[in-house]
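Sequence in, structure out. Go.
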Amino acid sequence: MAAARRATLFFAGILGLAGVISAAMASHASGDPRLMGGASAMCLAHAPALVALYAGWPALRTAAIAAALLVAGTLLFAGDLAMRHALGHGLFPMSAPTGGVLMMAGWLAVAAGALLKPKDD
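Output:
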């Protein structure tokens, strides 16, 4: 589990970086800024959530599954938007909605963790 916890912090950093880059692209690149703006928003919203999951990992029983769902969902959703911006087509059919559902499931896992007995009790 230590590797999964470190991976969560790694992806927090990667998503934070991607969020700043995509925000700059939305502001300065040609074309419609909405796609990159949306990708930026998702990355910058979920990066600090992953940092919080990393910090709460020792007590939150659902931290691993919540982190995995949030990472996968954000990568799919933001990746699809970025590809649509850059190449004119998405990753694969239904990739953004699939990513959105995974992010929602990740947040539900966070909420469920609040209802479970903490690990250290």
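Check: The CA atoms of residues 69 and 115 lie 18 Å apart. The two ends are 19 Å apart (CA to CA).
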